[in-house]
Write a structure and sequence with these properties.
Length: 602
């Protein structure tokens, strides 16, 4: 392992960067002229607000057009506590301002649980407009009497206040850095890509959205509080909906979920109007410039920060590939490493892995069936997609679920997974009746599923993704073991560069890491080559004993089904045509007739 990838270095480097930024901030606070210092504080406050926007829009993919309203909440609370001469001083007021804005963020985020896209944009913009009107009426506490906000004692001059604002920015950036790498951060990226995919791994979509709104708004509140300390008498004109819109455009254009780009956005926020002023152009034209940059970003489908990173990664990958070729020519690199794929270890080689112990324990117990389904019925209008389906999946087994197109296989997975609330019938997982439990609750009970469509968020690394899906603490060795078992690329790989077929394998690996009681696989081999089909089949056949779980495999490839499944259930027009040991089911004349139409094909 390279030094840069070791845990201490990975933990410490953000603090080192923050320390360097603080030292640079101090040098600038001493060296810059008074006017530039004022502008610099404005850039810092804007950067913190944009950092927050990066979470809600960049990471979690929701349109929020009221970031400066959250800033106004922070400024208002700081002004109020200043007038009340509340204990703790400015730093405490700033934190309280951020917390208050976070609470307001949760309230504004509530509609986001139901609304998406333009509708959510309209709601947040409407909120910004309403807050603007209210603010003009009620004004900031102390503004009518001209009571200036008391800055922190040691940072009362403009220069030292700039230094203080840099410290606040560094702290906010560190918090965002670690949040982005936490389960919350992964949940934001997951929910932006697929809400169903997020719920299916046991992560509440509601929590993911509301935490994104709360953290984003709290950062907005801190930014507003800081601005209040800068101007000392804040006014509503600093927090208009138009400015919120411009800030949103800057966040989208720069790629504000990347911390450096949020800082860059803050600089642009100040630089563009300042340059226009120097060139004798009205500063309001700055909004037009931001608008043009935003349109460019939206039409190109990427943003500045991501574009630069993609270019960098491409060149780094090319350099690494060239180095591997050279090493291979010199005879120093094994083939598997060259391909960037860890070779799957043989079962014998991995016999002492944690998964095997787990399996042995589970096998030893006389476990109830992994899944018992009785009279499961799902209707879409007049169509009964599932009509009284009953089946049992024994513990530690692989059951194949097959049937012609439209037979009801995916509907079965959706219904068992809790995605179809109108489903009737009884479903028991490991003896526990699931009743009306949500998909998230079912996933937490040990029911996992994969999807026919790609639900793997490309913005994560494989490591972050599989840990998120696992939903429990897993060691690096466990992650590497499961990835290697399914022939996936190494944990460090970014998912952006991974093809769809391999992403399906990674989805399977992540769900296996969750140690579920039952895993429903909906055509996991789609997009894989023939060799990969065969390899996946061998691993799935081994998985129950190795990981102590049961699998329901939906697959059209009968060779794969034959090689993996001990039992089969055949669906046709939403009914069970046959169910039992593989040989018996495949020899059933009704199955042959309905499923394939020709005896020879079975
Ligand atoms: N949301 C829906 N609304 C209405 N009809 C639906 C819906 N989802 C599925 N169906 C219908 O239910 C039936 C079963 O569909 P389902 O997708 O479960 O079949 P399947 O066996 O998974 O097919 P395939 O092998 O093509 O994936 C089909 O007739 C389908 O058109």
């Amino acid at each position: 392992m390279r030094l840069a990838e070791s845990r201490p270095v990975r933990m410490l480097w953000p603090f080192a960067v923050a320390a360097v930024a603080i030292v640079a901030g101090y040098a600038l606070s001493v060296g810059l002229d008074g006017y530039t210092v004022f502008l610099a504080v404005s850039a810092v406050t804007a950067a913190i607000a944009i950092l927050g926007l990066g979470i809600v829009t960049g990471s979690a993919g929701m349109i929020a057009l009221c970031q400066l309203t959250f800033a106004a909440v922070g400024a208002w609370i700081v002004s109020l506590l200043n007038v009340l001469e509340a204990p703790g001083g400015f730093v405490v007021w700033l934190v309280l301002g951020g917390l208050a804005a976070g609470v307001v963020g949760v309230l504004v985020g509530l509609p986001a649980l139901r609304l998406r896209g333009v509708n959510l944009a309209v709601v947040t913009l409407g909120f910004a407009a309403a807050a603007d009107v209210t603010l003009v009426q009620i004004q900031f506490p102390g503004s009518k009497d001209g009571i200036p906000i008391a800055r922190p004692e040691s940072f009362s001059s403009d220069r030292s206040y700039f230094f203080f604002s840099i410290i606040v920015l560094a702290v906010c950036a560190l918090i965002v850095f670690f949040l982005q790498r936490s389960r919350w951060g992964s949940s934001w990226k997951a929910v932006a890509f697929s809400e169903r995919g997020t719920a299916a791994v046991g992560q509440s979509v509601r929590t993911a959205k509301l935490t994104a709104f709360a953290v984003s708004a709290a950062l907005g509140g801190v930014s507003g509080g800081l601005l209040a300390g800068q101007v000392q008498l804040p006014f509503a004109s600093s927090f208009t909906p138009l400015q919120s819109l411009a800030l949103y455009v800057l966040a989208v254009m720069s790629g504000a979920y990347l911390i450096d780009m949020a800082v860059f956005g803050g600089l642009l926020w100040v630089l563009v109007p300042e340059l226009l002023k120097r060139w004798g152009v009205p500063q309001d034209w700055g909004f037009v410039v931001f608008g043009v940059l935003g349109v460019q970003a939206l039409t190109s489908g990427t943003n500045l920060g991501q574009g630069i990173r993609n270019l960098w990664w491409k060149r780094a990958d090319a350099r690494a590939a060239a180095a591997r070729v050279t090493a291979r020519r010199d005879g120093t690199t094994p083939l598997a490493e060259e391909a960037g794929v860890d070779a799957a270890p043989s079962p014998a080689a991995t016999a002492s892995s944690p998964g095997v112990d787990l399996a042995a324990d589970r096998l030893a117990a006389s476990a109830p069936p992994a899944l018992e389904v009785e009279h499961l019925t799902v209707r879409f209008g007049a169509l009964a997609a599932l009509d009284g389906v009953s089946l049992t999946v024994p513990a530690n087994s692989v059951m194949g679920l097959i049937g012609p197109n439209g037979a009801g296989k995916s509907t079965f997975v959706d219904a068992i997974g809790g995605f179809l609330p109108n489903a009737e019938g009884t479903v028991r997982l490991g003896g526990t009746e699931l009743g009306r439990r949500s998909p998230t609750a079912r996933a937490r009970l040990g029911l996992r599923r994969t999807f026919q469509q790609d639900r793997v968020p490309p913005t994560l690394t494989i490591d972050a993704y599989v840990r998120f899906v696992a939903g429990r603490r897993v060691s690096a060795a466990e992650v590497d073991d499961v990835l290697a078992f399914f022939g996936c690329p190494s944990a460090r790989t970014r998912l952006t560069g991974v093809d769809v077929g391999t992403r399906r394998l990674i989805e399977v690996a992540g769900n296996v890491l969750a140690a579920p009681k039952l895993l429903l696989l909906d055509e996991p081999a789609a997009g894989l080559s023939h060799e990969e089909h065969v390899a996946l089949g061998a691993r799935l056949a081994e998985a129950p004993a190795r990981f102590g779980m049961s699998i329901v495999l939906i697959e059209h490839d009968l060779d794969l089904v034959r090689s993996v499944c001990s039992s089969l259930t055949v669906l046709d027009f939403g009914r069970v045509l046959a169910s039992g040991p593989q040989d018996e089911v495949l020899a059933d004349p009704d199955v042959i007739k309905a499923y394939m139409g020709e005896t020879e094909m079975l």
